Amino acid sequence: MDDGQPGDGASRASGAAGTSLTTGAVARRLGVSPTTLRSWDRRYGIGPAVRADGRHRRWSAGDVAVLETMCRLTSAGVPPAEAARAAREGAGPAGAADPRAAVPGDVPRPRDRSRAAGTLPLGDVRQECRGLARAAVRLDAPAVEGQLEAAVEQHGLTVAWQEVMVPTLHAVGRKWASSGDRYVEVEHLLSWHVSTTLRRHTRAPVRRGDDTAGPVVLACVPGEQHTLPIEALNAALSRLGLPTRMFGAAVPAEALTAAVQRLGPSAVLLWAQARSAASPPLARHVAGTRWGVKGARRQPLVVLGGPGWAGRSAQGMPRPPTLKDALDTLSGALPAQTAAERR
């Protein structure tokens, strides 16, 4: 099973491939682009010892081993120049479990937080964001997958989302916005793997009796396509044992109302990334939806999520700013006996 470390596959392959690999072949084995390898050669001297006809790069097993170390260190967040120096000096075995352990004493180890992230404007963020950003820019899918999985395992889903995934996604989005159509492929790849990681950590729903509280409904408002935030919330709620119904992107108003009437949810979270999509009349309509027998009719708590609701009047509808706040709000919407069952 692939553990997400880009160097492992190259380590197995390079020994069998002999001592004369083309740049394209090495790039495929490492999971990086040929352009990245040529850039490392030009900028940091991480290149082949022999060039066919004096021009074409031909990579030996030793050259590939150096590249493996370079990949592991940059994926762990080590700046490329420092990673290159460590790789050239023979830093660590190809299969080291912790890439930071391969950094020799004269190369600074990554700090907990960093203000630099290669080509992406990350600002003051966790160290993991730097490695994740570099892996995404290289389109190094195995490294992106491994970085995301490690963040969830180390910090838990909520912290990994708020302090690793979101800052990196925002940085890619800013880069895309400032570069025309460039980096759109980076944003798509990173979003796909974030979604994959969130779904992997979403627990299967548990069937409950008819007398328990209704589920939490998660839906984007009509015209809203950004689903990653409610995917993260859905995963976090599932890990608390809370029943949910995920409807995803751009749910039509009529379909949303029908679902609320059929399900009798404890709460409905409406996500709006863009201000143009946020509709207070829709939120009020959902909040006013009632069901049940006469004298015991109920209605849902409506929770507003996303920056699109900023500045909109929504009396009685909480707007939690973070994933943790949303979890606290939605947990409190359930009857006491349901909360006790979860414990």
Helix-strand blueprint:
Elements: H1 6-16, H2 23-30, H3 34-44, E1 50-52, E2 56-58, H4 61-75, H5 80-88, E3 113-114, E4 125-126, H6 127-137, H7 141-155, H8 157-178, H9 184-200, E5 216-220, H10 228-239, E6 244-248, H11 253-263, E7 267-271, H12 280-287, E8 301-305, H13 323-332, H14 336-342
Parallel strand pairs: 5-6, 5-7, 7-8
Antiparallel strand pairs: 1-2, 3-4
Helix pairs in contact: 1-4, 2-3, 4-5, 6-7, 6-8, 7-8, 7-9, 8-9, 9-10, 10-13
Tell me what you see in this structure.
With 343 residues, the chain is of the alpha/beta class. 49% of the residues lie in helices and 9% in strands. It has helices spanning 6-16, 23-30, 34-44, 61-75, 80-88, 127-137, 141-155, 157-178, 184-200, 228-239, 253-263, 280-287, 323-332, 336-342, and strands spanning 50-52, 56-58, 113-114, 125-126, 216-220, 244-248, 267-271, 301-305. The strands form 3 sheets. It has a 4-stranded parallel sheet, sandwiched between helices. The chain has a two-stranded antiparallel ribbon with strand order 1-2. Strands 3-4 form a two-stranded antiparallel ribbon. Helix 2 (23-30) packs across helix 3 (34-44), helix 6 crosses helix 8 and helix 9 packs parallel to helix 10 (228-239). The two termini are 34 Å apart.
